[in-house]
Structures are given as structure tokens and as C-alpha cells.
Amino acid sequence: MASIATDSSIATRLQSVTEELRRIQDLLHAEETVDSSILTDFRDAVNRVRNTAWAVEQYANSQSSESDPQPVVTLVAGERIRVSYQLCKLIQGDLSNPQIRPQKAQLVQFREVLATLQQQIDATLPR
């Protein structure tokens, strides 16, 4: 359970971020050209935060109403899969771009987690 000090800190930070997002919105309206890949990354990040906030709210509501939180947890897992799919498509594009040179160690780590994930997906999906 979060302490009152933590709740206050989160509330203050959320208010600050909300104000900053409004300033960014004003800048976006005034700006004529912004790199589309930067805008895509920004939109994706905002969507992830929005979805996380919704999920936390739904989970808290299920706890306070003593209802089953499983549907919310399942929805969050589905959202992670959706976001992962989008990120993988972006990574495919990055790897196809000769101007982008990812670090080998990062690629090795990514390949390892993908191999494990592939095994888990294979075990989960019906044959």
C-alpha cells in the first residue's frame, strides 16, 4: 500500500507532467515541421502511459470493490503484446536502415529474449 507521502508525490508529479504535456501540445500546434519518427515515438509513449494509468485505475477499482482483478491483468498483458508487436515492427525498420547501427550486445540480448519468448508462445498457442 502506498504511503500518503508517496501518493502526494505522485499527485504532484502527475500535475507537473500534465502541465508539461499541455505546453508540448501548444508547441505542436505552432510547429510546422516535426520529424515524424519522433512524433510516432512520442505518441506511443503517451499511449503507453495513458493505458497504464487506465489499468492502474481499473485495478484499484477492482480492489476497492472487491471484484476479480483478473480481467484487468489479462487486458494489460494483451496491451503489452500489442505494444511489443509495434516495437518489433519498428526494430525491423531500424535494422533495414543502413544509417542505424545498433550495438551488437543489445542485439544479442534481444535475440536471446526473443528465442525464449518464441518457445513460450509455441507452448501457449494450440497446435
Shape: flat
Helix/sheet category: mainly alpha
Major sheet: size, sense and barrel closure? none
Low-confidence stretches: none
Mean pLDDT: 89
Distance between the termini: 42 Å
Helix content: over 70%
List keywords for this structure.
127 residues; mainly alpha; 0% strand; flat
Descriptive overview:
The structure is a single chain. With 127 residues, the chain is mainly α. Helix content is 82%, strand content 0%. The chain has 4 helices and no strands. It has helices spanning 4-30, 36-64, 70-96, 104-124. Helix 2 packs antiparallel against helix 3 (70-96). The protein is flat and about 45 Å long.
Summed up:
The protein is built from four helices and no strands. With 127 residues, it is mainly alpha-helical. Helix 2 (36-64) packs antiparallel against helix 3.
SSE map:
Blueprint: H1 4-30, H2 36-64, H3 70-96, H4 104-124
